[in-house]
Amino acid sequence: MSPVADFQLNVKQNWCPGCGDFSVQAAIQRALGNLGRAPHEVVIVSGIGCSSRLPGYINTYGFHSTHGRSLPLAQGVKLARPELTVLACGGDGDGFAIGLGHTIHAMRRDLDITYIVMDNHVYGLTKGQVSPRSDRGFVTKTSPAGSTETPVSALELALSAGAGFIAQGFSKELNELAALIEAGIRHTGFSFINVFSPCVTFNKVNTYEWYSQRLRKVGDLPNHDRHDRMTAMQLVMETEGLITGLIFERG
Ligand code: SF4
Ligand code: MG
Question: Coil, strand or helix: which one is 95?
Fold first, then answer.
C-alpha cells in the first residue's frame, strides 16, 4: 500500500497563505494514499487558474493544460490508458464559464474520471473578477455595482446533466473532503466533487466563517436517499446548494 507521503513533492505552492486550495491538495494526497494507488498509476489534469497549479504540487503524472480544457484532456488520457486513475481539477471559472460545455458533456459521457472543482466564487489568478459562481450583488472590479447575474448552481447542473456521483466539500473540513474524494475515485464512472475553497485575497464575502455559519451536512440528514436523483435535487434546492457530503450516487 502506498503511503500518503509518496504523493508529496518538495515544491512550494504559489498560493496565498490561507487559500482553500491547500486543503484540496492535502485531501487528494490522503485519498490516493488511502486507496493504495502508486504515484505512477495516477494522472491529474488541470485547466488554468490558481487552483489549476495543483498537479505541480502532487507526486503523480500531471498536465497543466489550457483554460477550461481539463476535461477533454483527462478524457483523452482515460481513453488511451484506461488502467490509470485519472483526476481532473480546476476552478469555478474554468469549469463553469469557458469550460462549461465540456463539463456537461463529460458528465453525460460518464468516463471513469474524478473531477474536482475548487469553487471560490471569483477569478483569483487574474486578481478578482466576477465568476459564474459569484453571488448576486458580489462587487468586483468587473461588477462594481454588484453582480446582476444568477450564479450557476453547480449541484443542480450536475444532477440535470446526469452525473452518476455528485458530492460537495469544504476546505475547512479536511476529513470529510478526503473521504469524498476517496469515494469519488472508487466510484466507477464520472464523479463530480465541488469544493468550497475560499479565496482569502479576492473574496472577502464568501469566507471560511461565512461558509461555517451556513453549510449543512448531508450526514446530519439521516433520511436522505442518495440514490434518488429527485430527492437530491430537492435537497440542493431547499438548501440553496449550501450543503456538503455525498449528494447523489447512481445506485
Ligand atoms: Fe488562492 Fe485567491 Fe490567492 Fe489565488 S488569489 S492563491 S485563489 S487565495
Ligand atoms: Mg475561481
Answer: helix
Beta strand pairing call for 61-64 and 42-46: parallel
Q: What pLDDT does 33 receive? A: 97
Q: CB–CB of 41/33 below 8 Å? A: no
Q: Cα dihedral angle (122, 127, 130, 135), rounded to 10 degrees?
A: 40
| Ligand 1 neighbour 202 (Cβ under 6 A) | yes
CA 15 to ligand 1 centroid distance, Å = 6
Query: What pLDDT sits at residue 230?
Result: 97
Which tens digit of pLDDT belongs to each residue from 146-179? Answer: 999 999 999 999 999 999 999 999 999 999 999 9
Q: Name the residue of 199, 203, 206, 208 to mutate for ligand 1: max ligand atoms within 8 A of Cβ.
A: 199
Look at residue 75 in the predicted model and tell me its pLDDT.
98
pLDDT score of 153: 98
Name residues of the chain where pLDDT drops below 70.
Answer: 1
Which one-letter amino acid corresponds to residue 14?
N
Longest Cα–Cα distance of the chain, Å, equals: 53
Which residue's CA is the nearest one to ligand 1's atom 2?
199
> C-alpha cell of 218?
448531508
pLDDT at 214: 98
Q: Which of 129, 201, 203, 205 to mutate to test the pocket of ligand 1 (most atoms within 8 A of CB)?
A: 201
How far is ligand 1, taken at its centre, from the CA of residue 17, in Å?
A: 8
Kindly give, in sequence order, each residue whose CB lies less than 8 Å from that of residue 229, ignoring residues fewer than 6 positions away. 159, 248
**Under 8 Å between Cβ of 63 and 49:** no
